[in-house]
Amino acid sequence: MNSGFNQVLETIEMIKVHHLDIRTVTLALSLRDCVSEDVKVTGDKIYNKIIKYAKNLKAYADEISAEYSIPIINKRIAVTPISSIGEGCREFDYVHLAKILDRAAHEVDVDFIGGYGALVEKGCTRGDSALIESIPEALSVTQRVCSSVNLASSKAGINMDAVLKMGGIIKQAAHLSADKDGLGAAKLVVFCNVPGDNPFMAGAFCGYGEPECALNIGVSGPGVVRAALESMPKDADFGQLAEKIKRIAFKITSSGELIGRELAQRMEIPFGVIDLSLAPTPAPGDSVAGIFEAMGLEMAGAHGTTAALAMLNDAVKKGGIMASSYVGGLSGAFIPVSEDADMIKAAACGCLTFDKLEAMTSVCSVGLDMIAIPGDTSVETIAAMIADEMAIGMINKKTTAVRIIPVPGKTIGERAVFGGLLGEAPIMKINQYNSSAFVSRGGRIPAPIHSLNN
What we know:
The protein is an alpha/beta fold and about 450 residues long. It has a domain at about 215-375 and about 395-450: Alpha-Beta Barrel (Anaerobic Ribonucleotide-triphosphate Reductase Large Chain), CATH 3.20.70.20. The chain has helices spanning about 5-15, 40-55, 55-70, 80-85, 95-110, 125-140, 160-175, 185, 220-230, 240-265, 290-295, 305-320, 340-350, 355-360, 380-395, 435-440, and strands at about 20-30, 70-80, 110-120, 145-155, 155-160, 190, 215-220, 270-275, 370-375, 400-405, 415, 425, 445. The strands form two sheets. Strands 1, 2, 3, 4, 5, 6, 7, 8, 9, 10 and 13 form an eleven-stranded mixed sheet that branches. Helix 2 packs parallel to helix 5 and helix 9 runs antiparallel to helix 10 (about 240-265). The chain is globular, with a radius of gyration of 21 Å. The termini are far apart.
């Protein structure tokens, strides 16, 4: 049996048995030429431009998925931060623009549209403030719109006024979707050092330095990595484990590169980046936490989990970067609690705690992700959680994020159910001591000394 045939069989097994997929194809689209003084005109321009560029996204993606027999799970659009697009209008009506985004996303039949957000790490303009205030309502009256706000960077520091504001916005977004266990907050994420080419939701948007349009790809395959490690000898050392992960990441990335370039060519737009992130799903076996178990940990959250995640993250990047010259986005390993079956299990039994998750974010590719907390958690406590995570990103010069859901009417030990790829999660215990006086000081936490590296 020749090596080429072996590789075909291996790829088939990766897809059919171990959940290899293209997690998302995301059309990044600049809306900067849609600005006008009339919000209705702006909305019409936005709608028409999205339809023009995205009308064939789903059809072509489905065609390619069938031709290559590789599932493409989500089709998405990411647009210029809407705060800057609506700011030129005589009257701010960001909710109207959110509805336009939602209608366009529905028309072209994509799963999500991202970019309803702002970049406020150094301060807010009038438009930024108006958009932030509108987020809870916008998310409650739309189905496919996702929102993100960048609150900090290694160059600017942490905007603590915006951090406190977003604590309240997250709580309000959850409250307005109480009948869905606070689903609105699951479509909202805050960042430090946000990348402008990330294809994953809820944080995807088209950055100011991006071209008119581009096709970005997000690959996945934690089940493939887990299976590969489980096939290795039990006494394999960490160097051997890392080498195996690198080889698998190369194969996963090669598949994504092939699909991304083919789709971009058919749509007659540039290929953007491939995001190497291992994104889990609630499906059994398709779990980042399961990789830790394959490495020898009894359960995610046990001592050694942070070291395991650090090695995994690094090996994925090293392997993937050899398969593409255009790697971007977040790239690494995601640890969203509700979206990972083994994470859910570890959190439910108390092995994986909120504090352990925070420690893990110092080495993963994002941050505190899809974590359900008691609905009566105060705005100030949520803001303090955000501040901690922003600090990890700022000091370590990496992207970090917070997507937490204060589930209305539920408390520790109960469960929130979001459905689909968002999964479900146990309500986790959090620190009960008060942070109000700290987060209420306002102003900006200054950037660290290494920001002066010009």
